[in-house]
Amino acid sequence: MTQGTTQGATAYTTSGTTSGAAQAAIGDSEFDRDTAVVRRAPGVYDTELSAGWTIINAVNGGYLLAVLGRALADALPHPDPFTVSAHYLTASQPGPAVIRTDTVRAGRTLSTGQASLFQYAEDGSEVERIRVIASYGDLGALPDDVRTSAEPPAIPPIDQCFGPQDAPEATPVQGSTAIADRLWLKLDPDTLGWALGAPSGKGEMRSWFGLADGRDADPLSLLLAVDALPPTAFDLGLSGWVPTVELTVHVRCRPAPGPLRVAIRTRNLAGGFLEEDAEVWDSADRLVAQSRQLARTVLAR
Amino acid sequence: MTQGTTQGATAYTTSGTTSGAAQAAIGDSEFDRDTAVVRRAPGVYDTELSAGWTIINAVNGGYLLAVLGRALADALPHPDPFTVSAHYLTASQPGPAVIRTDTVRAGRTLSTGQASLFQYAEDGSEVERIRVIASYGDLGALPDDVRTSAEPPAIPPIDQCFGPQDAPEATPVQGSTAIADRLWLKLDPDTLGWALGAPSGKGEMRSWFGLADGRDADPLSLLLAVDALPPTAFDLGLSGWVPTVELTVHVRCRPAPGPLRVAIRTRNLAGGFLEEDAEVWDSADRLVAQSRQLARTVLAR
């Protein structure tokens, strides 16, 4: 969950290539540094949740999933997340955290692991933030066959889309907008009516997506991409929090270099809960990730 | 995963009401007896996986999820599954099993728990079959607001749909077809081409759904309903196994009495993996459950 109403960086230009400064490489970028984990003991990792991926007073759920995903990539015998299911328990805060992993099963094609992220209460005790079960494999080892009826989302060209930096004036926001500086978003104007007080009511959000420092996408950053657009609830005319209860991501293909397209949709808001379905497409027109989350609507105070 | 090519029972008639025999009640039906769990110790439950919910040589994954769901409903302070994420580790067999649960967090609106189902190896050691994280709540406590753009699937009336018992002659099947006797399925003929050797290639499956003994749906039986139709892979022209890697179900509303409609769709088959999205609608035209699974295609031998 995040929103994009403030100034953002622009490593990608409207043509989709990076601007002036050298492009950050996978493994040596802000995203990599902020999701780094240090093995304390077998299966146990220390990390520092960065304030750079916060919005209002929350740490972005996709960023948190990428941190957990990196720990599991180290702990499990397979390198790539194929399916990751996360249940969000309590609100994470920037600062130190520990991830405890458990290898559930190591198979030939897939291995399955569990991971929990904990932070520390004032008395030093551990408070669990997120619990994850994930199955990992090797995307590079999959056969090339594709039989898909899925089509890329209809997003206008980048120069006809709008990012936070295109807003006529920055809307004053209560709290952090740090994540906006780390993402490169160019939103489909058809899904931006809410920013002008005229939400479409359709529950859709579509955007070009990249990291502000130009780092290309990889399977780990896809875990961020599925949960980094403004919430579809805005397009439904709701304001306030939309905290994630559960988020499952399927990574289907290793993404090609270049900007991604992310489309999110909510069909059913009922009883204060809604689903948010995301799909992520790469520059080679391949469906690289799918996700669904169950979220709660919490009215603005 | 299942298939429906053999004789099935018909507690529902084509008009959607139960036939001759008395309708089984929730709590006193085949489904309830076969998903019963007995508390051995706090959070630990014994159960007996029934051979009645097998297809070929596999125990149906939705049935297994319902067994786990019943254990968690007892272990957690809230009664209803809201979101259940299951990773399938090894193939379950009919016979004794033990479910070990852990209450992760008990909140006001939601509580989160974990559960694993184990069976016994020849030396008596426990082999884990499925691991689940789930968040439970109280569907009856949700407000009535609904803002949905979702529409019920276009399934023809029941008397224009076809179940296993309508097949001109039973296709010989290698292995168990027991589950077909416990379900009441009436499939949309547009998604039945595969049974006549002419799959549509669309990756869709739609059916009226009920339990053969006429028991009405409840949140637990929805966990079965999302994974009880023939696999969409058949409609894509594939044969063989489509074992589930991961299955997440969102229960959105308590279902009204009467037959359900289940629609399943696969958009992307790539690298030997496919997603299967299901939605379940009740007789009051409400979207009562959504699910997505990641499955593998395993060629027929």
Automatic annotation (TrEMBL), chains A, B:
Acyl-CoA thioesterase-like N-terminal HotDog domain span: 50-135
Pfam families referenced in this protein's UniProt entry, alphabetically: 4HBT_3 (PF13622), 4HBT_3C (PF20789)
Domain Acyl-CoA thioesterase-like C-terminal stretches: 168-295
Top-level taxon of the source organism: Bacteria
Alphabetical list of SUPFAM superfamilies matching this protein: Thioesterase/thiol ester dehydrase-isomerase
Protein name: Thioesterase family protein
Organism in which the protein naturally occurs: Streptomyces boluensis
Lineage: Bacteria, Bacillati, Actinomycetota, Actinomycetes, Kitasatosporales
